[in-house]
Amino acid sequence: MKWLCVIWTKKIGCHLWALSTMIPKKVKIFPYPYIIEHRMLSSYKSKNNIKDSYRLLKLQVGCSLDDVRNSFRNLAKQYHPDSGSITADSAMFMQIEAAYRTVLSDVAKKMKSSENEDEEETKFKSKAPQHRQYLSFEGVGFGTPSQRERQYKQFRVDRAAEQVMEYQKQKLESQYAMDAMIAKDIRQSKKIKITQAIDRLVEDLIQESMAKGDFDNLSGKGKPLQKFSYCPHIDPMTHNLNRILIDNGYQPEWILMQKEIRETIEELRRNIVASRNKLGEPMTPCRQKQWSQICEQLIEDIKKLNKRINDFNLIVPILNRQMVHFNADKEIARAQAAYEILMEKTKTTDVDTKENEQEKVKIFRLKCSFLKWINLMLK
């Protein structure tokens, strides 16, 4: 007989001290009861213990591994002794760690069991026996064998009709493509014939004019062509052609559009200044209404002009030649300022004319008085 006594004491964690207790000799004795801290030697855990572990981790049964890890991480930040938080507690952290390991093993077991069930189900499905009649008729139809045979015949008829329709469709498409290619070749041949006919006609006209002597009176007859200025950035032929176009008054589209935009904005500015001068002062309600209508019309015209500027910016070849949009409010304020300047000028001119008239009147009066005095002296 041997004696073994286990005494549980709290001294820097949980330790076990072995003493003797009475155990029968036939019973096999463990060399040392390896129970470390709060971890039990047996792997059995009761349902209540698992539920308490879920409750301690604030989780529900059926949660995922990520949820378990996230919950343990958040609770460790609160209760770990080295976290430095107010709620740090070593005993509570030990309970949380035990609950974490319990829940983790429970979730792993459930996942493994579900995987085993899926594998068994797939094996069962792959090995499921099939009746011989469902292996015939290409698996088409349902019901009795005679019904399935009739359904299979109808299926073959429909499939044949679809194949015929598909063949006819492909045949028509190929025929249409061939006709299109033939028509394209015909058009190209006609173009070639037309260009050749035009070339022959031009050549005939040139020869006829030379025979008549129409080219004898040309200023540069018998002299070499005048060399144009050389530009190293482009091809000489392109440069010479551009020079010829410029000399004959040709202008690119973006230059004409730029000129049109500038003329349009100048015309709009003149019209709004003239309308403001026509209304004059003071601005009565009726005149104010007319001025509002004029401003609305100007806003619409400016919108159209800005669209034109967008088109110009797309075709202009030089980036620094692009134009910005015009602002209708600024144009109205500009017209108002021009009107005020004009009114000031008219006032100054009126004052000057009045002063000149007064001076003329004074001079006239002096002349009259001088003549009267001379007449009196002669009498």
Overview of the molecule:
This protein has 379 residues and is mostly helical. Helix content is 66%, strand content 5%. The chain is built from eight helices and two strands. The protein has a two-stranded antiparallel ribbon with strand order 1-2. Strand 1 (2-10) and strand 2 form a beta hairpin. Helix 1 packs across helix 3 (90-126). The longest helix has 68 residues, at 145-212. The protein is flat. Residues 1-45 and 126-130 have low confidence and may be disordered.
A few lines on this structure:
Residues 258-315 form a coiled coil. With 379 residues, the chain is mainly α. The protein has helices at 47-56, 65-79, 90-126, 145-212, 236-247, 253-279, 285-315, 328-378, and strands at residues 2-10, 14-23.
Q: Give the uncertain stretches in residue-range form.
A: 1-45, 126-130
Tell me the number of helical segments per DSSP (H or I, 4 or more residues long): 8
Question: Quick one: how many beta strands?
Answer: 2
The level of helicity is 55-70%
| Cα-atom radius of gyration | 54 Å
Mean of residue pLDDT values:
77
Task: Give the overall shape.
Answer: flat
How is this fold's topology laid out?
Layout: E1 2-10, E2 14-23, H1 47-56, H2 65-79, H3 90-126, H4 145-212, H5 236-247, H6 253-279, H7 285-315, H8 328-378
Antiparallel strand pairs: 1-2
